[in-house]
Design a protein that fits this description.
With 310 residues, this protein is mainly α. Helix content is 79%, strand content 2%. A two-stranded antiparallel ribbon has the order 1-2. Helix 2 (22-49) runs antiparallel to helix 3 (56-83), helix 3 packs antiparallel against helix 4 (92-125) and helix 8 packs antiparallel against helix 9 (227-261). The radius of gyration is 21 Å and the shape is globular.
């Protein structure tokens, strides 16, 4: 390979562990991506089209699913084309662009879960102030904050990474991330590491603390109320809790995966990346489609209507 090519493109040998079954994995990921696109789009469409679902809780669910769909679109098309390629490569700028989208949308997911926890906290613990604290203008402001703040912070990390001179051109992942990109540099990465640590502490850690605090308060209030009140609160909070636990566990695995990358065989981070992509992208539509009563009821009604028409 020419020297100029090495300076511009990165190879993705993470696919090497799947060469013997790459067509199987291509079909599997294609099926998963079609399922995600259909289910996320269906639920978002239902929430937007049904006036009875024009409530903050459902607006936040639609925002989270739209966020998840956009993140999946940043990963799956490139991933699918790489499974059909003999030697997957990605340009430096495209890699940073994908890493920016995946990281910023991933962090936005945590912020959206924090916003949803705030919504449930006010609804259950401060019901008389709900209309004031969760007004349409407050919902719009919270959504903008959940998307723009992570985008600004991750853009800073991407710019810092883009300024580094690379000495390695082998990214042992199925998709790009900033941590792996920075590890390919041959200069000092202290500023990048400190900035990344501060961003994680500022958003991810604080979001987790806030969600845990909110649901702890909700639990205390529920224990003081009747059984019917606890049941209703559980039905509205359980999907959010399941998604939050899924996000948190997958984030821990992603951090572990980054640390393993330097010492493990290529297939190890590759396999973990596969699991991360599938679990995180499939979990949201399944949980909200099945566990949220109003959404589940309308999805079944819509599907049964089309089946009857057919």
């Amino acid at each position: 390979m020419a020297e100029g090519f090495n300076e511009t493109y990165l190879t993705l040998p993470g696919h090497a562990g799947f060469n013997n079954l790459r067509y199987f994995f291509f079909l599997m990921f294609l099926t998963v991506y079609i399922f995600i696109s259909f289910t996320d789009s269906l639920i978002v469409f239902l929430i937007c089209s049904q006036r009875s679902l024009h409530k903050p809780m459902y607006v936040f669910i639609a925002a989270l699913l739209l966020n998840s769909l956009t993140c999946s679109t940043a990963i799956y098309p490139k991933l699918l084309s790489d499974f059909l390629s003999e030697r997957p490569v990605v340009s430096r700028s495209a890699c940073l662009c994908q890493a920016f989208l995946v990281y910023s949308l991933g962090v936005s997911g945590f912020m959206l879960l924090s916003v949803m926890a705030f919504d449930r906290y006010v609804s259950i613990c401060e019901p008389l102030r709900y209309a004031t604290l969760v007004s349409p203008s407050a919902v719009a402001a919270l959504l903008l904050l959940a998307w723009l703040l992570p985008a600004g912070l991750v853009a800073g990390a991407a710019v810092l990474a883009g300024r580094l001179r690379l000495c390695g051109f082998r990214l042992d992942r199925l998709y790009c991330n900033i941590y792996s990109f920075v590890n390919l540099s041959c200069g000092s990465t202290l500023v990048n590491n400190v900035y990344g640590l501060l961003c994680n502490a500022m958003i991810v850690f604080l979001s987790i603390v806030f969600v845990v605090f909110s649901y702890s308060r909700i639990l205390v209030v529920c224990l003081q109320q009747s059984g019917s009140f606890r049941g209703k609160a559980m039905r509205t909070c359980l999907p959010h809790l399941l998604v939050f636990i899924n996000y948190s566990v997958c984030t821990v695995f992603e951090l572990v995966n980054n640390r393993l990358q330097a010492d493990a065989e290529v297939a190890v981070p590759g396999v973990m990346s596969v699991l991360m992509v599938i679990i995180t992208s499939l979990f949201n539509p399944v949980v909200y489609g099945l566990k949220t009563q109003e959404i589940s009821k309308r999805v079944k009604k819509l599907l049964c209507y089309h089946r009857t028409e057919g």
